[in-house]
Amino acid sequence: MSRHLPRYLAALALIAPAIACGGGGGGGTDGPTAGTENPGPSEGSAGTDTSDPTEGGTDTSADPTDGGEPVKCDEGPQPGPMPRLVRLTHQQYDLTVADLLKLNLDPLPSAEFLADPAVAGFDNNAAQMVVKDRLGRDYRRAAERLAAEAVAPAALAAILPCQPEGDGSQCAAQFVAEFGRRAFRRPLTPAEQTTYSGLFTQGPGLYPEGTAFEQGIRFIIEAMLQSGHFLYRVELSDSADSDQVIPLGGYELASRLSYLLWGSMPDDLLLTAAGAGELDTPEGVEAHARRLLDSPKAEAPVADFHRQWLELDKVDNLQKNGDLYPEFNKALAGAMREETQRFVRHVVFELEGDYAALLTAPVTFVNAELAALYGLEGQYGAEFTEAALDPQKRAGILTQPSFLATHAYQSSSSPIFRGAFMQKQILCTPPPPPPGGIDPNLPAPSDDIVTTRDQVEAHTEQDPYCAGCHKSVINPPGFAFEHYDALGKWRDLDNGAPVDASGESVSGAWVFAFTDAVDMVGQIGESANGTRCYLTNWFRYGYGRDVAPIDRCTIDALDAELAASGYNIKELLVSLTLTRTFRFRAVEE
Amino acid sequence: MTMRRRNFLRGACGVAVALPFLESLGWRRFIKTARAADPGGKRLVVFFMCNGVNMETFFPAAAGPLTAASLMGTSLEPIADYASKLLIPRGMHMVPKGWGQDADTPGDDHAKGMGHKLTAEALDPGTLYARGISVDQFAAQKLNADGGPAMTLSVGWRHSNWLGHISYSGNNTPVTPEGNPWLTYQDLMGLGGLDEMVKMQIAARRQSVLDLVEDEFKSLKAKNLSQADAQKLEMHADSIRDLEVGMVGNGLIECALDPARAAEIEAIDPDSVMEDWQFKTIGLMQLDILAMAIACGATSAGSIQWGSGSGGPIYKWDGMNHEFNHHKLSHGNTKDDNSGEEVAGYHEMLTQIDRWHAEQYRHLLDRLASYSEGDGTVLDNSAVVWFNELSDGKDHSYLDLPVVIAGGAGGYLKQGHYIDLINGQDPWVQTHPHNRLLITLLNAVGCTDNGAPITQFGRAGLEQGEFAELLA
């Protein structure tokens, strides 16, 4: 019997609905779903590249405040929809228990937690973060482990507010009040105080080791770490003010502040301020926002935002052709991530820089391996040191290998991956996903087709169906990076021919022409499209929710305010804490 | 960070425990002794392989009765001893279809192969997770007396997204498989393997905390929560209520492995479970635990997923010394994106891989057959189904699916036959959608639709009814 199937059947089968790239090739904000999308090294990409949670799935990186029903902003920005229960992200869990128990935890408790899905590019979407499947078990395991570690003698002393005397019940009650206030990020109610104090008397005899006092305290900690008031940030405020919005309570706002700016629980100062009503005014909020941003703890959420926005996790599964890139190994891939995170920290916190600096600063941080990749002269070792780069060749995050190498094939650059990333992540004008069943193989080099750019043009710009998105939207911003090979190294020639990195592209209504990547990112760094997209992504991450139509007013106002001050990144973070959607809750229904 | 059993045991005698107090905490309610599944009940076990097979060497030469001889020389040779207990139905195609044939269903062929296979449902365009329950979880809900879930296991590295999931408890709710055999075993044992006193202590604590947390949820729900927030709490409560299952079993077969085997499982470095060099070791452990869970009545349904769609290990054991991972070899290419060189001899390597999986399948059958039950064995009362994400991996084909069923589900299914459902026609005829196989399997293991046979499963509008050709 004949079982042979012609290979071309798959191609024949394809009658894909045409999705235009909007008018003259721009736009792309008509809300394409990402059903068939797989923008990493494509559908055949192996056990590796497609694991990035920011890929595929819901790609709503387009600015949803564009188009659709017009929202009137006459009455100024108003709060958008926000759940009352916001579960801690796994990173927030790790940071919070470390602060709460004053322990250094290795391995991190969340290492074995069920991973959260990414929504609109970020894995902290408040509506999506739920406790399901085996996560309840994971939390229980972690609570049992952490409670055991917390009552080791030295550890217990660090969190105990008193010296136990007699049966210890007085000190235990004090512990419940003070530890509970930190664990729940607000004072306990009298009923909670009674309940948790009761655990102290139940605890002894429930563990195979430890004194009665230790067992009682351990039981309290074990239970509190499984409480909904610890695992979720709970916002129950419900009284609307005269403007028909609900002002958040001081403790609720304190948690919003600390989780936005630290990714962890409020410190004692912030809790005290909340209790004293200091956060009831914008001035009070701003003062604490600035105080929090001056702490090294502010680095964690900034790093986490850029990790997700720049898709840095892709370096974990990076593979390169060993014949072409013998210098490539896991250590170099890890160094690429480290380089970008050090650069981001430098720009945001040391330079107190703006968005343009992120995209253009010709400096970076390298170890010996990265220095070789950049062709830097001089002595470099295992430690990362700051290095000046040739401003003609390098500018900011998008000319770093963490982006260039992860948006490339194993042996060659990929203008398509790089260009699609630019439109989607940097400009918030994502092209629609590629149709299913396309042939990803570029034509082989020939007399007419020499460079990678030639190959991509021949493959995608002849057929009008493909050209609709590729010719002016996807390909040109990708071609801009053709001076960087599959690893991110500079090249003047590609397959023996001079690189042409120039082009003209379109993002929404904005048309931009450039000579090369440095020129292009310089323009984007100063453009309203680039800054608004960066702001929109911070809105999503910072507020843990996607952008709703009503949020257009908030983003417009923030955009205008930040544009006036040059889009300083720390100021952007402060501004996020002063909006009405941050300080208030909308009345539902 | 896993809780190690020896940690409990070490201090077990150290503290004098006031037993009456423990009793007052009601720990007995917590340690359930009720069985999930009755002895002798029917079971559904899914053995799921990814990236397709070498279609040229997988099947016997001709349709008809199966004998050990007819399996010689094929990839199925390792299960030749079981020829009389096998059913190999051929000629089915996956629904919803691959290759863009159902234009309204999203996802690429790998996404579909993983998400459609056990659900026969389309994927959600937003998440690429399947839109319905999978056959293993469906069977567990019907067959397990306590409605408990199917056991869901994996071996080796897998995608954390839709390419790494086959089992679904409902629309858009993938069940994440457990890849760490020690955690699998602990979940299964609950507190079963511990010293009686330590067991009571843990049970009492967990019950107290559970009561407390549920009370808190109750008062939270009395507040002004939105429906979405209330659902979050319900989902959370369900998730921790499941944890109550402490001790399970049918009382006939002990829900515990030989202590030496348990110690080997405990000794596995949790950081290594996803690594290729552990693939075989972890796989055998997971199979041992799965077979025991099925045999002792912990659950009536389970699945084990090997590797990942568009992934898989580099096979370097049992006579294999491959240079490229399973996905690359399935395309016969040195690169995942097909942009590399052809791998010389890849067809033979794929046959080696298929054959190796047949050996693991054999191990599962051996384990199930080692548990006596009534006049036969647990295998006889089960349908143990070897599914694959794809058929021909290079083509990403969804036609002519390779399926092997062992055990007759208590006499429901035909055994000892290799059946060509499409009688030698080109598979392109697509007369036998695979959702009807899922229907057949559900009926075979005794699931019903309010007492009547199940007639539909999967996406609305698919063909209905079981395959009469497969019935004994």
Automatic annotation (TrEMBL), chain A:
Residues 513-582 form the DUF1585 domain. Pfam families: PSCyt3, PSD2, PSD3, PSD4, PSD5. Residues 87-152 form the DUF1587 domain. Residues 45-63 have a biased composition (Polar residues). Residues 26-84 are annotated as: Disordered. Residues 171-235 form the DUF1595 domain. It comes from the Bacteria. Residues 394-492 form the DUF1588 domain. Keywords: Signal. The keyword Ribosomal protein does not apply. InterPro entries: DUF1585, DUF1587, DUF1588, DUF1592, DUF1595. Residues 249-376 form the DUF1592 domain. This is DUF1592 domain-containing protein.
